[in-house]
Amino acid sequence: MSLIRVLPGLCGGVHSGLARRIRRTLTDRNAEAQTNKLVCIGDKARSMLRSTHSEHMLLSVKQIGRVSPVFKDASTVANAIAESGFPYDMAEIYYNKYHSPVKYEITTLPVFNKYGIEMAPNINAFDDIEEDQLESYAEWTLAALLYYALKQGAASEQSARMSAMDNATKNAADMIRNLSLLYNRTRQAVITRELIEIISGAAALK
Q: Where on the tree of life does the source sit, at the highest rank (predicted)?
């Protein structure tokens, strides 16, 4: 079986778990580089996996993920996969699924080629499906699922950034409060010492 694994939007520590998951999956399955390929979306994805799994790299797509993703980004990746000529049976999209401002989880989406769709148990519910229609549907499904994964990843990333900024703001407020307390105590100690010196000097003159 030929397999493609797609990692969208790898950037920052929030997504480093995706790279670890991919490495673990490739190791556990003893995946061969000839039949198991990686498609990396974003510069971080490539840099995280190139050092350990360069032989699995099919292609990497840059300039995606720096701004809010649009469907054109997903279709660009889908077209690049189609034009690569790699004959895959199934693809897995690894991404961070957004649940709440404080929770997201690594999730996979299965994607099948036209032959996998043709073998689906409910495909007989549709009449007279031609091969070019299956091909178009498979390509559109890949682009649509990639777009979904990119949006989920972007939401998870923004949520993590908001949480990090909120924690940084709270930490800064705590630091300001502690430094203000230290300043006031030091200032009071200096004033007290100066008063003691003045009183001691006045007493010595009597």
A: Eukaryota
Q: φ, ψ for residue 144 (rounded to 5)?
A: -65, -45
Instruction: Map tokens 């036209």 to a residue.
Output: 114
Q: Where are the domains of the chain?
A: 3-162
What is the sign of the dihedral through the CA atoms of 80, 81, 84 and 85? negative
Q: Which helix (H) or strand (E) holds 176?
A: helix 131-205
**In the numeric block, which tokens belong to residue 171?**
């930490």
CA 95 – CA 166 distance, rounded (Å): 24
CATH architecture of 3-162: 3-Layer(aba) Sandwich (3.40)
More confident residue, 181 or 101: 181
Range list of H helices, 11-95: 16-28, 43-53, 71-84
Contacts of 180 (CB under 8 A, 6+ apart): none
Q: Report pLDDT digits (tens) over 15-26.
A: 678 888 888 888
Residue 164, pLDDT > 90, answer: no
pTM, full prediction: 0.74
Q: What does the alpha-carbon distance between residue 169 and residue 79 come to, in Å, rounded to a whole number?
A: 43
